Amino acid sequence: MSKRISIHGQWSSRLMFILAATGAAVGLGNIWKFPYLTGENGGGAFVLVYLLCIGLITIPIMMAEVLIGRRGRQSPVNSLQTLAIEAGASTQWRLLGWAGMLAGLVILSYYSVIAGWILAYLMRMVTGVFVRVTAEGASSIFTQLVTDPERLLAWHTIFMVMTIKVVSRGIRNGLEKVVKILVPMLFFLLLVLVVHAARYGDLDQAVDYLFHSDFSKLTPAAVWTAMGHAFFTLSLGMGAMVAYGSYLPNGVSIAKASIVVAVLDTLVALLAGLAVFPVVFANNLAAGDGPGLVFQTLPIAFGQMPGGVFFGSLFFLLLVFAAWTSAIALIEPLVAWLVENREIERIRASIWTGIVAWLLGVVTILSFSNWSFSFNFIGVPKRHGLFDVLDILTSSIILPLGGLFMALFVGWVMVRESVEDELGGLPGVGFKLWYFVIRYVVPAAMVLVFLQVIGVL
Ligand code: TRP
Hints:
Number of strands: 2
Number of helices: 18
Number of domains: 1
Bound molecules: tryptophan
Strand content: under 5%
Helix content: over 70%
CATH architecture: Orthogonal Bundle
Distance between the termini: 47 Å
Shape: globular
Oligomer: single chain
Radius of gyration: 21 Å
């Protein structure tokens, strides 16, 4: 069968795909969320489960998503539909693409708000607001910011404009140009911060905290959180990697590229832990502070250390880069779909998508000040606010479910020859092993974890 081509263009090389996909994967999830989730869930054992989920469940699914994209060469909705038709299956599989696009909007709506906090913090760091700040001082700066809708709105708007600007310029002139610079810079900044943390912070305690597994602290809910995070951090379960895969040149090994991206992403999360925790521990602060870890605990720590203004500013700059290269991937599937099905130009598609995500973000902003509330999820008392509802809805429910269905689609629906053809680079046993994992191991493992969480097992 002749290969399809994408109307949106292609990555100019394998490296560009790797940079773009790594940019999508490395985000607030790695640098903001992973350290605080680890802190909330007791450290080492959580990290171990997360690593297991990455290796066993999400890397195979990443390959599956990229493969769907490259075979279909369209937005996730249309790729799924085309491949389903090819396999004689129901066209309703496109709903999986729809769920993903909606999840992207929802994630972007709160992602952009947090990115707004980060921009605001970058300003404060640079201007030395946190120098020798006390715990009360840091917490009041944080509270003042998150309960000030006007200020948040301004930053949220700026971030959304940054995102739309890149996406509207397309694959080669927009996405590639940005990731080519930001992703290498991101790694460089992170290394500088880890070296600094190792010199001035308590590295031993941080390493012990991250890698010493105490299974008594591991609840079933924590296992589910770790698995959900494995999907979130690799940007899986919602079609983003399908979209990026649809621009992948033929002949590039999907297996190798996916593994490189997953390893880089995991490395960033662990390095982020090694940049954050030594600084936190050296100042006798607590690791279990939740989302405030990076916004309340860390500024205190930077405020007390030599060169704190400089390194603190680098840290928030790093977060801006990470958030930006992810935000563009969050709306790319929807923009691609609008261009394909509504036949509008990319620029208009990007603006419309941005407006909708912006409006949703406004709701999140208001939820911090005017509409806060508390709720429980599978026995874990959660913090409050719409933000948590959106976070749980996406990372704990939609992404794992979406990922499971992607695996089922590739394993049980798609024509086996197409699958094998796309993974051409895999030696015989490699393909059989991966196919077995996608068909049996991934679904079984996910169902087992789920049964355990709801208390059936
Ligand atoms: N992986 C991103 C992070 O770690 C978050 C994310 C989830 C994402 N799904 C995505 C980013 C889809 C881009 C596209 O922060």
